[in-house]
Request: fold
Amino acid sequence: MKENRIRILYIDDEIHNLNAFKASFRRSYEIYTANSAQEGKQLLKEVMVHIIIADQKMPVSTGVEFFHEIKDVLPDPIRILLTGYTDVEDIIDAINKGHIYSYIKKPWDETELHRTINNAYEIYRTRRQLRDKIDELEKTNDELNRFIYSTSHDLRSPLMSVLGIINLSRLDNSVTDPNGYIPMVESCVLKLDGFIQKIIEYYRNSRLEVEYEKIDFNNLLEDSITVFQPQNTQIRFNTHVEQPVDFRGDTFRISVILNNLISNAVKYQKPEEAEPMVNLTVKVEPHKATIWIRDNGIGILSEHLNNIFKMFFRSKNNNKPGSGIGLYIVKEALSKIGGTINVESKYGEGTQFEITIPNKNEFDT
Reply:
């Protein structure tokens, strides 16, 4: 048996048709035959074929009905129908629904049937190659994500040890640092740890299933402010939440979105600003929540606005370059929960983000 030969199953209840098909095509293809749909199903359990050819007019089950039955169980083999009917409405319907690839009128023309078989086999090969490539890509992507996640966790451990040693040295005054190197080391460690945490957020967002639960935006905003306010105690946070109805959403992803945007609002304040502020406004409606985050920081250059959500994009117009991944994670997290984001900014005056998130309340479940 040659492995590279096209394997064909031909089903027909008329023995002379089966014999004629074998005689015409056995030199070109590896032929299997069955004289009923039931026998064909049994043979398909034993042999992996590339193409299935069935006669339309068979007792018990027509060719179209047979192909409809096996389509989901055996999606790979390409299906060709032989028919003597002049009325082809149900055949066209079968083609449109994907039950069959093509049909050939009886009595068949050998050249036409050869051409149809070879075209069908090219489609079979292309589909298999594409699926193999997709499987390979998914496997590689999964391995890469796991590697990133594992590496990120392994990197955090020594960083936390360094920070612990720095804090110990401050507590017992055992290290003299006349040149102020220790705060510089601490700053670098914190930046690296922040980047690692962003990678972990990205991994979790890409891997975790979306989970909906009731959310109180007052509590969510308070948690975020508690985390970031110590980074700049001069900033005044103004919050306003209108939540007359329950809101159900993914707490993890909404927290990631808020934390990244509030972190940026704190980080990119103007050093000379006398009254730095961040305004946080939330309006909850039956089918959505809209969140506005506005600051009076350094703003974003207009030519950069189309790029800020791209991975690793860093604006050159400030002296506090970020990781280039925070806003990308925001966009990805919103994509997972069906949200949107818009940004308005004027360089030197400040930035406003507007986020819309669907409310998965009881009407949508």
Summary: The two ends are 55 Å apart (CA to CA).
